[in-house]
């Protein structure tokens, strides 16, 4: 009988230490290519509302998002078999607590046994930024150097770090509705504070919308020709970060099905997804012509969590 491997637990500090940014970018690129090639198992995420005190489900029907939301995201890419569990409680912000909490459970695909449980807030931020970095390598101008971050949380910090790995970034502009958060973020990333989203975006080569907004914060009128936009927030069918004018540009998605079912930016604007990023990376579909503004709609895929978790396990397991 094969001895059962002990279940490991990796906290946030261990995850951050184990995730080499360049290896993570390469792993996310490979995963997106495999996804578009049809060699990844990944159903659409399941989303369930929950209440703070066990209220009966019928009482939630009038407010579908309830007190919070539980997201469940399984995927397999080769030896990376995992499911991610995320809770989102927007009211936590009023209490000075994080709105999101996440774990990833990694399994052995041969036996089905769990191998590890990973705290996944930092993992989420890093793999999300890695996907943006992969898209920027493929779709942003090689000399893109001015970055606008619309959002000042953990995703702003991870995007600043990983975009510097793939483009010659010389200026990072930061805007969000909370000026104190902007000040802290600017100090952490070596950026410049902006008093409006428009000020941050005008003249930027790369724009990342990484907010909790449910209404548009980015106007297409502000974008210069040839800008690369990573639309990372608004992962629900009724939420928007970009207005219709912005969404009239070429739209590339991490996964077409996810974008068409889960993205309010795509659904609300009626935009057509030109291609999946993996199709462009594998040259199955031509990249948009140089000089075109491109919107990369990132849904934050389960396969990205799975391969990132596997990297951590292989490094520390």
Notes on the protein architecture:
This protein is of the alpha/beta class. It folds into two domains: 8-123 and 304-316, 2-Layer Sandwich (ornithine cyclodeaminase, domain 1); 129-301, Rossmann fold. It has eleven helices and 14 strands. The chain has helices spanning 12-18, 21-37, 121-139, 154-166, 179-189, 197-201, 244-247, 256-262, 264-269, 277-281, 302-316; strands at residues 8-10, 46-50, 68-77, 80-88, 100-107, 114-119, 146-150, 171-175, 192-193, 206-209, 228-231, 250-253, 273-276, 294-297. The strands form two sheets. An eight-stranded parallel beta sheet has the order 9-8-7-10-11-14-12-13, sandwiched between helices. It has a six-stranded mixed beta sheet with strand order 1-6-5-4-3-2. The longest helix is centred in the middle third of the chain and has 19 residues, at 121-139.
